[in-house]
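Quick one, tokens below. Sequence please?
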């Protein structure tokens, strides 16, 4: 069994190492069907790992507002629920989707639940983390200071690792599939919007 696991990890490692852009990955949608991210070529993407029972869950409101504002300019949000942080994304993907549509009326694509850290991390997230590592929390911000304190108590060197730190970490991807920026959940959505606006207007 261990050999099988190691072999699978090796395959994932090779896939991640050979990937040139976000379009090289395939994910599963809420129905369990394969979706090639090549379907989003030419779009500006914001890829985010989410949870329905998190202090940051109200960001769904801001994300949906951002989506409605810029989707006509070639902008997409790709939502990947993840239960690795405080077990805050319980239930099936269908239950999660129902919750999000009922409470936040989300219109952007929501994909199947995944792991973003550890041996079972989806190859997409292994690649995203390799492109943009953790840049730190703004400890001048109260929420950033809180997150830094909580994570440092668990691991004094947490900030030296590229792992996803919590729910609602975001990656901004250019129209040609390159990762431009990584945002921590405490980063201001106004800053995210400013960068999204710059990219959707950059049509060269």
């Amino acid at each position: 069994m261990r050999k099988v696991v190691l072999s699978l990890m090796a395959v994932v490692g090779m896939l991640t190492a050979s990937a040139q852009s976000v379009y090289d990955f395939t994910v599963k949608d809420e129905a369990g069907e394969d979706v090639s991210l090549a379907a989003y070529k030419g779009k500006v993407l914001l890829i985010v790992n989410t949870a329905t029972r998190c202090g940051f869950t109200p960001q769904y409101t801001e994300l949906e507002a951002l989506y409605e504002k810029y989707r006509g300019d070639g902008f997409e949000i790709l939502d990947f629920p993840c239960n690795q942080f405080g077990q805050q994304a319980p239930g099936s993907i269908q239950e999660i989707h129902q919750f999000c549509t009922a409470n936040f009326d989300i219109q952007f694509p929501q994909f199947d639940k995944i792991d973003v850290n550890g041996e079972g991390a989806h190859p997409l997230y292994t690649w995203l983390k390799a492109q943009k590592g953790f840049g730190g929390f703004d400890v001048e911000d109260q929420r950033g200071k809180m997150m830094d304190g909580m994570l440092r108590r668990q691991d004094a060197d947490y900030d030296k690792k590229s792992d996803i730190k919590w729910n609602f970490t975001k990656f901004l991807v250019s129209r040609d599939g390159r990762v431009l920026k990584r945002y921590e959940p405490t980063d201001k959505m106004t800053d995210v919007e400013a960068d999204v606006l710059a990219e959707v207007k950059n049509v060269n």
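Strands lie at 26-28, 34-36, 44-50, 75-81, 170-173, 179-183. The CA atoms of residues 79 and 110 lie 5 Å apart.
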